[in-house]
Structures are given as C-alpha cells and as structure tokens.
Amino acid sequence: MKNDLRSDCPIAASLDVIGDRWTLIVLRDVLLTQKVAFSEIGVPEGIATNILMNRLERLTEAGIIECYAHPTDGRRRIYLPTQRGIELIPILVDLVVWGTDHTAAQGVRKIAKAIKQDREGMIKNIEARAAASRAANLPKA
C-alpha cells in the first residue's frame, strides 16, 4: 500500500487504513462472520457495489485481505483475511461491546454479553474460525 498517511500518530494512521464506515462493515463481514463472496458482504447495510469494490481493493492493497478466484467459478472472486487482518479481530470485538453498551444498536446483545464474560475466549474462537475459513477457501495449489 502506498504511504498516504496524513500523520505519524498511530491512531490517525490506523484510521487512514480502516477508519471509514464502509471499511469497518467489510471487515465485520469478512472477519467476524467469515463472508467471502462479493455478493455476501455489506448486504444488510446496502453498500453500493462501487463503494464495496473500492473498499475491498483498499483492504487488499493494505494487506488486510486477499482476493482469489472463486474455486468453482473463475469469473467470481472471494476475499479472505490475511494474518494482518485477523489481528484486527480484537478491535472489532471491542467495538461490538462498545456499540451495544453506548448506542441504540442491540442486534447482538447476547454476543456482547458473551464477549464480556470471556473476551479472550471469544477472540480466540473468532480468530480460529477466520483462519479455518481462510484455509478452507484458499485455492488448492
């Protein structure tokens, strides 16, 4: 990824890479729910296809996800997290808890409660699922 960071501050630099609404929605879908197909990502929020494509390209350039040909349909693409992407899972997990506690969003209240009870266990579980999804969907050599 080209270096177009606006600041040397780590928080500002992180926001330059992952800090807009649609990027976080894409990360939620790819990392937390293991969605891999273009048609699955950002569906509930209605992300426009051109914006989705832009965010997927940016995340690929940043080394957070990788793009591969679909295993059964070479015209389609799948998007898989890299290790760099998987390392974002704790941040997203904390956003789930914060959002449940401090906004009107209550869609995953049970998950937020489970995270509060065993944050590290939940993170390890989600990381393992993301890694397993990646392994299962990687093209065979």
UniProtKB/TrEMBL annotation:
Q: Print the keywords alphabetically.
A: DNA-binding, Transcription, Transcription regulation
Q: Which GO terms describe its molecular function?
A: DNA binding
Q: Which InterPro entries match?
A: HTH_HxlR, WH-like_DNA-bd_sf, WH_DNA-bd_sf
Domain HTH hxlR-type stretches: 9-107
Q: What SUPFAM superfamilies would the database entry show?
A: Winged helix' DNA-binding domain
PANTHER family in alphabetical order: TRANSCRIPTIONAL REGULATOR, MARR FAMILY, TRANSCRIPTIONAL REGULATORY PROTEIN
Official protein name in the record? HxlR-like helix-turn-helix
Per the UniProt entry, what species is this protein from, by scientific name?
Stieleria varia
Taxonomic lineage from the root: Bacteria, Pseudomonadati, Planctomycetota, Planctomycetia, Pirellulales
